[in-house]
Amino acid sequence: MLPRLPVVTRCLTLAALCVAGPVAALELPLPPPGEDIVGQVQVIKAKYEDTFADLGTAHDLGYLEMVAANPGVDPWLPGAGTEVILPTRFILPPGPREGIVINLAEYRLYYFPKGQNVVYTFPLGIGREGWGSPIAHTSITAKTPNPTWTPPASIRAEHAADGDPLPSVVPAGPNNPLGPFKFTLGTPGYLIHGSNKKFGIGMRTSHGCFRMLNNNVLEMAGMVPVGTSVRIINEPYKFGISGGKVYLEAHTPLDDKGNPSVVDKHTAVINALLKREDLANNLRMNWDVVRDVVAAEDGLPVEIAIPTTAPATSLSSAPFDLQQ
Fold first, then answer.
1. Which residues have a Cβ under 8 Å from the Cβ of 1 and sit 6 or more positions away?
2. Cα 241 to Cα 14, 191, 248, 265, 279, distances in angstroms
3. Can you give the pLDDT of all 324 residues of the chain as single tens digits?
4. How many beta carbons lie within 10 A of that of residue 118, not counting itself?
5. Among 212, 217, 178, 218, which residue's Cα sits nearest to residue 198?
6. For residue 111, what are the β-bridge partners?
7. How far apart are CA 288 and CA 189, in angstroms?
8. pLDDT tens-digit map of 62-78
9. In the chain, what is the straight-line distance between the N-terminal and C-terminal CA atoms, in Å?
10. Is 193 tagged catalytic?
11. Environment class of residue 195 by beta-carbon count within 10 Å: exposed (0-12), middle (13-18) or buried (19+)?
12. Burial of 35 (0-12, 13-18, 19+ CB in 10 A)
């Protein structure tokens, strides 16, 4: 039986094993076949002037994932010398490792360039309440540097109601909400683009489009061709294998419109596991640890099981209650 550890203890134990130090773009080598985890968690010591927003910008991390990985730490004033976890270890999203995969529940984009044994991953801002981002399988249909912005009538009406009228066309430049570059998606009305605001990456702040840090979208601009597949999913629970062990990564569930959702977590976790046919029927699962991971929703991959040749236990009768 795997040991059950309190969530905070597990995080600190994991952190103690990781090497501190900044990263540039999150370009990570793909694991070998049958493996699913990339990157390493890092731990840094905050400076007096640091905020989670600034640290996220420096390390290609979104605001909410920084908050989730560091419960109890003030995101606006962590304090000089405070250890801050950088959640730069990821279970790759389920499904084919090709093109772009956006996982709404993670506020994160993965890009698998064709013919290369690497993955790039970047934080995203997604649609806020009332303007949810879509779940879809689409593609990049156009690439536009220095875009102008023609606000839709619905957005102009919203701004007018708030006493902040918009022009019919916003020219390219530092005040353009699309930033220095945009990718047009085949799903009508949706883009991947930069931003004229640093804050909001890794949060629900857009009108449904996908916002990126400007340096990230410019990096993508040089790598991603027109026609690239874009798969938009909503998977709060990701299972993966690394070193012969099984891991679970949990995020706060969102509904199909990208809003925080009250879900049957027991069913959602089991359904996510059942999608992994290579895992669902040959695990020795520590359900106490599963419960802790799901309750924490900290986005950190945690070991929850080991494969076994023993007869499988029915997942539908798993002995845990995630609603507690």
1. 284, 286
2. 17, 33, 9, 21, 9
3. 444 444 433 444 443 344 444 444 589 999 998 899 999 999 999 999 999 989 998 999 999 999 999 999 999 999 999 999 999 999 999 999 999 999 999 999 999 999 999 999 999 988 655 445 778 899 999 999 999 877 666 677 766 766 666 766 777 888 888 889 999 999 988 899 998 877 778 776 655 589 999 999 999 999 999 999 999 999 999 999 999 899 999 998 887 665 666 677 888 888 888 888 777 666 788 889 999 999 999 999 999 987 665 554 445 445 555 544
4. 12
5. 212
6. 100, 120
7. 44
8. 999 999 999 999 999 99
9. 22
10. yes
11. buried
12. middle
Amino acid identity of residue 40, one-letter, is: Q
SS3 317: helix
pLDDT in tens, 237-293: 999 999 989 999 999 888 766 566 667 788 888 888 888 877 766 678 888 999 999
CB atoms within 10 A of CB 65: 24
The token pair that represents 153 in the structure block: 């009538």
pTM of whole model > 0.70? yes
Q: Which amino acid is at 248?
A: L
Active-site hit among 59, 207, 209, 251: 209
Pair of tokens at residue 79: 């304090």
The encoded tokens of residue 48 equal 């007096």
Dist. CA 252–CA 268, nearest whole Å: 12
DSSP 47: P
Select which of 59, 193, 207, 251 is catalytic. 193
Quickly tell me which residue has 């353009």 as its tokens: 176
Q: How many residues does this entry show for the chain?
A: 324
Q: What is the DSSP string of 76-96?
A: S---TT-EEEE--EEEPPSS-
CA angle 145, 24, 58 (to 5 degrees): 85
Type and span of the H or E element at 295 = helix 287-296
